[in-house]
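User: Structure tokens for this complex, please. No commentary.
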Amino acid sequence: MIPRAGTEIPTITRAPDAIDLFMFSGASWLIHRIHYDLPFTTEHDGHPGLLVHGPLQGTYMVQTVQRWLGRAARLVSITYRHLAPAYLGDSLECGGSVAAVDGDRVTCELWIHKLDGTVATSGTALFEVAP
Amino acid sequence: MGVITEEARRWAERDYPDYAFTVGERDIQKYAHAIGETDPMHFERAAAVEAGYADVVAPPLFPYVIRMHAAHLVGRDDLEPDGSATADVPPLDTTRAMAGETTIDLEQPVVAGDVVTVTKRIVDMYEKEGRSGALVFVIMEFTFTNQRGDLVARERFTRIYR
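Assistant:
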């Protein structure tokens, strides 16, 4: 079923833990220390905690739509930007809305919020949805 | 201002070798588990075939895994103290890196057995004054092509150095 413009997308919440960060670094062979070495991350980079990978947050955005529409939704393109760092321990609420529908092409505005309401990541994704 | 040196400009203009990645079933399974996917089409051939794919199919943003291996599957001596690949880091006084914006266009799914070649080039590098000093934006473009010559994906990615 093709959704209508303006529809709110049901949110999902992700709270990636140390295992999730490890698995994502390992599977993608991303060796950057800010995702696993806390003393380095605080002392060298000045962050209060280990960072949740940007591309992992990108997958959460895609999953938000796919949990809702299922396999019928095929990702065609996505743009996302990181506005505030997300840290290990943050609870990330992922949601959005349908911005436009053109035939079977559905454009979604997507966001990832932290518990305090800060937007960690915002984006736009185009899906092709089987009727 | 003026942190981008001539040396860094020359660095940005150099050619990167293409990188061919043979996509194994396990590469897809590991990534799918890492992002919390549970759909059997990412794990079992029969389920993927039933869903219309030739073999175990990767979640859509899998090309990221390919370009990370292209940059980071190097010897231990070719990594910086922060774990970045030396060849991937511009010769600047900046020491900290973060992901900025990305845009990915997908054309073809990636399935187990595909050989995906990624080409990389740096399309732009510029600086802005941030709250805690200069920020350098490096914009890269990646093109992913499979063994049939089909375009799999294109990505335009910004990494921020400070």
